[in-house]
């Protein structure tokens, strides 16, 4: 029995070619910190890190490598922005499809600091009702915070349209790119994005434990650091540095993670994200067409590949999706994700709460033969 990994929306596997080798090479042949030593190998590491900042700028159409901030993951990045920016009495807009990486910090602030949020409604396919956005803006609205694509239905949000609305109304626009970075082209300039949060281990095909955000000066100037400490700069002062990225990068960075991410970004540059997206959509189309022929499954969201990523949620009409996921794994080696996917309101929007769904998600190394095998199993599985 060959294992089939169909949970790429949780983390990519396998990683991009060269990632593990780059991390090992750094740990064995250099391994030095940055900003903490005046020797040559420390400067070499600093150059490698700056190179990764530049690669991220190229990928996301952004001009300031110094405004690329590394964090432990995208959840940490979102928390740094939300909690560092919003004050008592502020109001923000989010979609009804948001992940808990956005919603839990907002709910926490709503409970502690009287920060308000309103949910822009989405339809039963997870599509944003963009025509409602402007009418929901209040006098105290400070920002629109939105995921680029749903981790439940795969639906892609009209980010460029929302960005223009935000800019027109003097609002900051903060985007969660967890499901799209490295898969769908993102231009911070064209989409009017003030802060783009990212994770390294999904579509960017890097290791876990590295994420961050790219941020405009305008928003950065209004952001209070969530964590402070040593930066290796201005060490004669106990004040937090006032320049980026040091202002938001206290403590030792995950340098192996950054080096691995840099190698993954090189792979993406060489391969082309459009090529990867096309491959993933071909697999998704084949999967959707096959599932439609199986009466015991209902596709959640669009039944075609328009306006989506390679994420497909299903409900099983014959029983419990959790039992199905267990059976797929233990009897057939097919790995999926089942439940609420850390997005309960998305499931309410899609009409799948509280039952949840079983989610299949495909990546750059999945093959058509694997999709065929999954479909064959879904046709006969009974639990």
TrEMBL record:
State the UniProt keywords alphabetically.
Aminotransferase, Pyridoxal phosphate, Transferase
Please tell me which top-level EC class this enzyme sits in. Answer: transferase
Q: Which cofactor does it need?
A: pyridoxal 5'-phosphate
Q: Its Enzyme Commission number?
A: 2.8.1.7
Reactions this protein catalyses? (sulfur carrier)-H + L-cysteine = (sulfur carrier)-SH + L-alanine
Q: Give the UniProt family note.
A: Belongs to the class-V pyridoxal-phosphate-dependent aminotransferase family. Csd subfamily.
This chain's protein is named cysteine desulfurase
